[in-house]
Amino acid sequence: MLEKMSRLYAPTLKEDPTEADLASHKLLLRAGMIRKTASGLYSYLPLAWRSLEKIETIVREEMDSHGGQEVLLPVLTPAELWRESGRWDVYGPELMRVQDRHEREFALGPTHEETMTDLVNHELKSYKQLPQNLYQIQQKFRDELRPRFGLMRGREFIMKDAYSFDADEAGLKATYDQMYDAYDRIFKRCGLHCVPVAADSGQIGGSSSIEFMALAEYGEAAIVHCDQCGYAADEEAATAVIAVADGPATPDGEMVELDTPGAHTIEEVAALLGVDRSATRKSIALVNGVGEPVVAIVPGDHELNDVKASHAFGDYRLMTDEELESLGLVKGCIGPVGLPEGVLCVCDISLQQSLSWLVGANLPEKHLAGACPGRDFTPDEWLDLASAKAGDRCPECGAPLKEARGIEVGQIFQLGDKYSRALHATFLDQDGKERFFQMGCYGIGVTRTLAAVVEQSHDEAGIVWPVPVAPFEVEVLPLDVSDDLVWPAAQRLADELAALGVQTLLDDRKERAGVKFNDADLLGLPYQVVLGKRGVKNGTVELKDRADGERTDVPLEDVASQVA
Ligand code: ATP
Ligand code: MG
Ligand code: MG
Ligand code: MG
Question: Residue 154: left (phi > 0), alpha (psi -120 to 50), or beta?
């Protein structure tokens, strides 16, 4: 493959665009790879498209070799399916809704759990046809509140989304583990340094989830991790959400009274705290008034019914004053410290009772540290208190946690029967019994992965492409295209490389050497072959490795064997 710079549509920019803060955003614009069409909407120019296709190929190869089968579903998804799952209302303004001429409602797919479940429903009838794992690579639409950082958070972006259907939980777990391996390989092959972290299941719901975070100084996601034991979690997942109630709870546990008058549902409590209850599996604790027990702790995805169930406190034990003191606590009131999925919230009720509840719930003592001064907190203060921070103790081993930032490039979920139940998607098991599919879903942000690669791999001069996702592998730079030695030598070399299967870009422009060097570094192809007059006369060229900047003089006839 040989491309000439003179005809390539790659409008480079000399200056940093003012609209961009992040290195990847700046460089993709400057290298003429992407252009903004409107807020959160980007066009991928030829160079970006070449890299995106390489990422997609890696994704396809790994999905196919880990049990996936590629399909392509419509982008436009009927409202009925979203209504069946309940997400038409729950998804909120992020869902882009459209109507056809008959006023039938649709959504531009932000994700395809419903559509994919509907696709297999009534087709997969027997356990013998399971498991199935279907994926697609497609544009997705989310009307993000703050589209920003170029390809990182677009309103339209390319995603690989996969959905698995298993007969039982063990099957789902096996498929999930397979996807974990596939993801690990995909990001490594893309040249990304990623860490898997425990995640919040978010809008999609479900029980177990891991995010793949590309570590980056300016990543949007905050992570806490432990060097001692390897524990790592999304800060959101490591956050306990606390609701404080200051009055008596209703007997059924569904209502609480806050400082504001009147009764509140969990949703209202969440709203008061500024938390989207539907978009979180964080725990909410409802705490009762003076003299009454703590009413309920609602771990993540439990429904209101579970609130009632948790009225039964189980075996808890009151802590002695000495025990309290040994935890550094005084009587009065304590505040929450980062809990992975746990909850800690105590206000003016019996401190001992609450603490002992928490001990009974097997929360490690370390989470009980940190006294609060016994005043009301604003919702922001509660959230701040509740999120895990550097120095908090690791829930697994107790060592101090560290903070890092990352870019969420992929996420895998064990959904269980959340969607199959909602959409009545069933199969017959070995005993002829009707059962709901055990589902998993698995996303990768293809365009975000491209941006993450640039974010991790660049210097002051420009992008430094890892070979597997570089738009081209080699750039041939004849410094003087009007020279009758240099130009023919460059053409011959470029042809030879292309014939060997090396993806080659030939800078055939009549530009000054300085301009060519700058553009070559900005574009960041892994190898540059520079042909100068003196060198070519002696039969040598300069081979530059973009990653380490090393230049070596190489005999012209050896170039192909060195880079191919
Ligand atoms: P985020 O937390 O960044 O909003 P998400 O958790 O909402 O992402 P998922 O629903 O898990 O995203 O979607 C799967 C993948 O799609 C994400 O891991 C991410 O790589 C990518 N993705 C999600 N939203 C966007 C977006 N607005 N622009 C580009 N890529 C995105
Ligand atoms: Mg999101
Ligand atoms: Mg997320
Ligand atoms: Mg996610």
Answer: beta
Interatomic CA distance for residues 503 and 475, integer angstroms: 9
The per-residue pLDDT for 206 is: 47
**Nearest to residue 472, comparing CAs of 9, 62, 13, 46?**
46
Q: Is 408 in the pocket of ligand 1 (CB under 6 A)?
A: yes
Ligand closest to 153 (CA) is 1
45 touches 548 (CB < 8 A): no
Burial 321-340 (b: 16+ CB within 10 A, else e): eebbeebebeeebbbbbbbb
| DSSP code per residue over 283-308 | -EEE---TTS---EEE-TT--HHHHH
Taking the centre of ligand 1 as the mean of its atom positions, its distance from the CA of residue 445, in whole angstroms, is 6
Nearest atom of ligand 1 to the alpha carbon of 199: 6
Q: Enumerate residues 6+ apart whose C-beta is below 8 A from 532.
A: 479, 480, 486, 541, 542
Report which protein residue has its CA nearest ligand 1's atom 31: 445
- Cβ of 154 closer than 6 Å to ligand 1, yes or no, is yes
Per-residue pLDDT tens over the stretch 273-325 = 444 443 333 333 333 332 232 323 333 333 322 222 222 222 223 334 554 45
CA of 308 to the centre of ligand 4 (A): 30
Among the residues of 66-168, which ranges form H helices?
79-85, 87-90, 113-120
3-state class (DSSP) for residue 148: strand
How many whole angstroms from 260 Cα to the centroid of ligand 4? Answer: 34
Q: Does 156 sit in the ligand 1 pocket, CB within 6 Å? A: no
Residue 214 to residue 193: CA distance in whole angstroms: 6
Report which DSSP code applies to 240. Answer: P
Torsion angles phi and psi, residue 324, rounded to 5:
-60, -45
Distance CA 150, CA 30 (A): 12
pLDDT in tens, 350-389: 333 333 333 333 333 333 322 232 434 444 544 455 566 7
Q: How far is the CA of 144 from the centre of ligand 1 (A)?
A: 10
Is residue 410 within 6 Å of ligand 1 at its C-beta? yes
Task: Say how far apart CA 310 and CA 298 lie, in whole Å.
Answer: 8
Å from CA of 100 to ligand 4 middle: 30
Residue nearest to atom 24 of ligand 1 (CA): 153
- The complex scores an ipTM of 0.99
- If one residue of 55, 144, 448, 454 were mutated to test the ligand 1 pocket, choosing by the most ligand atoms within 8 A of its CB, it would be 448
Separation between Cα atoms, residue 463 and residue 457, nearest integer Å: 6
Contact of 155 with 141, CB cutoff 8 Å: yes
What atom in ligand 1 is closest to the CA of residue 147? 27
Residue with tokens 């409107």: 38
> Does residue 143 have its Cβ closer than 6 Å to ligand 1?
no
For ligand 1, atom 8, name the residue with the nearest CA: 408
Q: Is 473 exposed, middle or buried (0-12, 13-18, 19+ CB in 10 A)?
A: buried
Question: What 3-state DSSP class applies to 89?
Answer: helix
